[in-house]
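To make this tangible, we now present a fold written out as C-alpha cells:
***
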Amino acid sequence: MRDKLRIFPKGKNHWNWKGGLPKCPDCGKKISYISVRCIKCHKNFAISEKAPNWKGGRRQARGYIFVYKPEHPFCDYHGYVAEHRFVMERILGRYLLSTEIIHHINGIKNDNRIENLKLFSISEHISFHMIGNKFRKGHLPWNKGIHIRK
C-alpha cells in the first residue's frame, strides 16, 4: 500500500531508501514523496498538450467556446480567449477594445461563423436590444413584466 502511494519513510537504514527526495521530471526540483511534479510544473502540465484530459485547447463555458491562446493580451487567467472575439480579431486584423462587443445574430452562442457575428460598441449593443424588446408584438415598453392579452 505504501509503495502505491509513493510514501516512503526517511532514513538510510530503511530497506526502501531511495537516495533522497525524488525530483520533478520536468525541472529537476526536489519534491515530496507524495507528489509527481512540483507545483509550478503541475500547473503547466494540467493545461498543456501533455495532460491526459487535453481536448485540443477548446472548452465550453456559459454557452460560449473558448480557445487556448496564452500569448493573447486579453486571455483569462488560464490562457483562454472567447472564440467569437478571436474570430473577429482575425477578420479585422487587430485586437478588439474592451469597449467592443461581439453580437451573435442568430442568438446561438457557440455559432462563431463570421456571417453570424456583428461588432458593436457597448452603447450600440444596448440600443440594439432595447429596440428589439420595445417593438415586440404585444409588449409594453415601459414595463417588461406586463403583456397585453389578445
